[in-house]
Design a protein that fits this description.
Layout (H helix, E strand, L loop, with lengths): L1 H28 L6 H24 L2 H16 L11 H35 L13 H25 L1 H11 L14 H18 L7 H13 L18 H7 L17 H5 L28 H21 L1
Helix pairs in contact: 2-4, 3-8, 4-7, 4-11, 5-6, 5-7, 6-11
């Protein structure tokens, strides 16, 4: 009976999403006013090029290989969980998530952010604060740096404190063997939440993202590093930066660690808002306390490819049956 209801509700949700997608597709591409070659060019611009660019940005860069090699070496030299193997089932599943996430985030970011920007410019441009651009370059860089990191902190904390958002974010926390690729294990709807939290304040303050490209590149690979199975708190730096130790505490299954250490790069926001866990030598087990979650069970190709979809549908089921 439950399965029948779930299939029915899932079908309704799918139809609604397809309907919304079709509407946005027509609105964005303006099909009735474009020639076929223009539609093809739009499709390439919005879908194909971002996906290819995303993989090039991730894989064919020195930062990716440096971060990966350093993380793997430290996992062997000083593992947080010595019994965890490098090429485990969890690692392999996260590797599949890595390819899925690269495609999904490229599509979502390319389409949603563009729509968000166009909507803001059309309906909300009057609230833009322009005096930020009159500041010196160093001040604009510092503002963008701190603003971006705070917005990551805010969005992350909301994912934990708002029950609806937690159901989606729970997928990321389901990993019981943290590794370099765990940071790619995200529900596709989280991209919408994250980009909304990040983009709108930047539009209001008219902050130019290219000013922090170098920071963004470092941030991207540093977050992969501190998801690794590494036993280190980086010494005195743990008062400034998120570390493998502090982020492992954030992923802990122990209740005393819940809703702690939300930082993305800097931990200053956790100190300011009193969400920092003050013990810097604990390396707890990680995961979620949900026995019904569809954890990866097999390293078969079919199961590895399908499990992320089961995990992404799980929050919808939980929300529906609550």
């Amino acid at each position: 009976m439950e399965s029948s209801w779930f299939r029915t509700i899932s079908s309704v949700v799918l139809c609604v999403l397809l309907g919304i997608g079709a509407y946005l597709f027509v609105q964005y591409f303006n099909l009735f006013g474009l020639e076929l070659w223009q539609v093809k060019r739009k499709i390439l611009q919005i879908f194909y090029y971002p996906i290819i660019g995303r993989f090039e940005y991730i894989i064919f860069t020195t930062s990716f290989w440096v971060a990966l090699v350093v993380t793997l070496m430290l996992e062997r030299l000083t593992p947080a969980q010595p019994k965890q193997t490098t090429l485990s089932l969890s690692f392999t599943q996260d590797l599949v998530w890595f390819f899925y996430e690269s495609i999904l985030s490229a599509v979502v970011i390319a389409t949603y952010v563009s729509l968000l920007r166009r909507g803001y410019e059309k309906y909300c441009s009057g609230v833009t604060i322009t005096y930020v651009n009159q500041s010196p370059e160093w001040a604009k860089f510092l503002l963008a740096l701190l603003l971006l990191d705070f917005l990551y902190w805010l969005q992350h904390s909301l994912n934990h404190k708002v029950p609806l958002l937690w159901e989606f974010h729970k997928i990321h926390h389901s990993q019981r063997e943290l590794n370099f690729f765990t940071d790619f294990r995200y529900h596709v709807l989280e991209y919408i939440i994250r980009q909304t939290c990040l983009v709108i304040p930047f539009l209001i303050l008219e902050v130019n993202p290219p000013k922090i490209v170098a920071f963004a590149t470092f941030h991207t690979w540093y977050t992969r590093f501190y998801h690794g199975n590494i036993r280190t708190n980086l010494g005195p730096l743990h008062y400034i930066l998120v570390t493998p130790q502090s982020h492992r505490v954030h992923h802990s299954v122990e209740e005393r660690h819940f809703e702690k250490n939300f930082g993305s790069l800097f931990c200053i926001w956790d100190f300011i808002f009193r969400t920092q866990y003050w013990e810097f030598s604990e390396y707890p087990e990680t995961g979620i306390n949900d026995p019904d979650f569809p954890y990866e069970q097999s390293d078969g190709i079919k199961d590895l490819l399908l499990t992320p979809f089961h995990q992404m549908f799980y929050p919808l089921r939980e929300i529906t049956w609550r």
